[in-house]
Write a structure and sequence with these properties.
alpha/beta, Rossmann fold, Beta Polymerase, domain 2, 2 domains, five-stranded mixed sheet, 14 strands, 44% helix, binds cytidine-5'-triphosphate, binds manganese (II) ion
């Protein structure tokens, strides 16, 4: 071999090593570990982005492992990506933030991991279709797509061909047609059509405001309004209190809440609740109890060990939060719970416990890892608004409420369907009713409920799909 040939070989051999190890300066951001998905991105771009990130102090793993906190992909369909992720045997995929390249680009520009926002999340095609059906008030297809989204996420390995999904439960014709498009063309035309649809875009935007439901969104759309700015400047629009708060804190509450922020809020709520009632029982519920890294709010359940003592508890908590100067918004709903009306036939409805939907002020200094750190250079006010939900059932309903409020929504739906179809039982956030025995079954823990249903206990972090 001649000299030039040798050189070429050396270069060729050397390149992957260069791209891998070089450029890693000291890891500055210990809480994030990135993994870049090569699919669609290509290996050279991936190598380039890897070096770039490492040079900026990010830790980037070459292989996917349980250490990875942020998976970044470019031009990937959510379903295919999820299926691919599932095939890696990670301990818990739901803990990983699966993000679009836009999050990576924003982070590189800022030179630090930026806060995850909804626009950074890889869109889930089935969720989008479900949402679009919801806007069209087509309940059937909406549920079908939601179910499909969850079935596809729970698949053990990658979906490579349509045959593989033919036999799956809960996948209807619409869903299969969409999957076929994705598997054949790498994209879904139906979804792209929806994404470009002006009405869908407007309704999605409007319903992203706290307090705005599909009906209000539709009304605004029909009036020809298309942007949030137009709504705020339209003189004839009357916003209710909740919507006013939604607009006022829009930029804060549309940003994802991190686990560290949820923990900080947990401390505040705990301190507040126990200041009022030292023996109160408090639990974190919702997505954070399922181990999620990010959420749209933080959910808590509280009760008193003695029946009836929980009455008025939430109002005291609210007062105390107000005294601390951190209550930005509060929507309180008193209890309409009536044991004599159990079981309710309308099991899909909201529960009747006393609850409140809050917006709280969280000081940056109270969040671990952000103490004394200026995370957002453009934002010097040092606090953010966070959505918090509190629910206070009587203690004998606690286990049912905990199960219901831990979610996920789809897990709850599946569990209720199972109870009804397989066990002739009605399950909701209040009770488990045995139709055969014609009585409500007692439960003090979630384990009791699973046992009544003849199921093995499912840990909260296994309830994401
Ligand atoms: N839930 C409920 N009754 C309500 C509101 C919510 O039973 N009136 C349940 C939902 O079914 C969900 C759980 O409470 O399973 C938490 O709701 P939510 O905060 O909306 O969802 P999370 O799973 O926590 O997701 P996120 O991280 O986006 O908040
Ligand atoms: Mn939540
Ligand atoms: Mn909630």
């Amino acid at each position: 071999m001649n000299h030039a040939g040798m050189l070429a070989l050396v270069k060729k051999r050397k390149r992957p090593v260069e791209a891998g190890a070089q450029g890693q300066v000291e890891v500055k951001f210990k809480e994030v570990t990135l993994y870049l998905v090569e699919r669609k991105m290509g290996s050279s771009r991936r190598n380039f982005l890897t070096s770039l990130a490492r040079s900026k102090g990010f830790r980037v793993e070459d292989v996917l492992s349980d250490d990875v906190t942020h998976v970044v992909a470019e031009d990937n369909q959510a379903e295919v990506l999820w299926a691919w992720l599932m095939g890696h045997g990670l301990r818990d995929v739901s803990r990983v933030a699966v993000l679009d390249i836009s999050w990576f680009t924003d982070s590189m520009r800022e030179g630090r991991p930026v806060r995850v926002e909804t626009r950074h999340c890889i869109q889930d095609v089935m969720e989008e279709l479900a949402e679009s059906s919801e806007f069209n008030q087509s309940k059937g297809p909406c549920l079908a797509f939601r179910q499909a989204a969850s079935v596809l996420k729970s698949l053990p390995s990658a979906v490579h061909c349509l045959e593989a999904i033919q036999g799956l439960p809960c996948l209807g014709e619409h869903t299969k047609a969409v999957m076929e498009e994705i598997l054949t063309f790498g994209r879904s035309f139906k979804v792209e059509e929806i994404r470009c649809d002006e009405r869908y875009q407007a309704l999605k935007l409007f319903t992203s405001v706290f307090g705005v439901g599909p009906k209000t969104a539709e009304k605004w759309y029909r009036r020809g309004l298309r942007s949030l700015q137009e709504i705020l400047t339209e003189p004839n629009i009357q916003l209710n209190r909740m919507q006013r708060a939604g607009f006022l804190y829009y930029s804060d509450i549309s940003k994802a809440v991190s686990k560290a922020e949820a923990k900080a809020l947990g401390c505040i709520i705990e301190e507040t609740v126990h200041w009022i009632a030292p023996d109160a029982i408090l639990a974190l519920t919702g997505g954070f109890r399922r181990g999620k890294e990010y959420g749209h709010d933080v959910d808590f359940l509280l009760t008193m060990p003695e029946m009836g003592k929980e009455e008025g508890l939430l109002l005291h908590v609210i007062d105390r939060l107000k005294d601390q100067g951190i209550l930005l918004y509060c929507e309180y709903q008193g209890s309409t719970f009536d044991v004599s009306k159990l079981p309710s036939c309308r099991f899909e409805d909201m529960d009747c416990f006393q609850k409140c939907f809050l917006i709280l002020r969280l000081e940056q200094g109270q969040v671990a890892g952000e103490r004394g750190l200026q995370r957002d250079p453009g934002d010097s006010r040092g606090w953010r608004a966070v959505r918090v939900d509190l629910v206070a059932p009587p203690v004998d309903r606690y286990a049912f409420a905990l199960l219901g409020w831990t979610g996920s929504k789809q897990f709850g739906r599946d569990l209720r369907t199972f109870a009804q179809k397989e066990r002739l039982m009605l399950l909701d956030n209040h009770a488990l009713y045995d139709k055969t025995k014609k009585l409500c079954l007692l439960a003090t823990t979630e384990e009791d409920i699973f046992a009544h249903l003849g199921l093995e206990y499912v840990e909260p972090w296994q309830r994401n799909a």
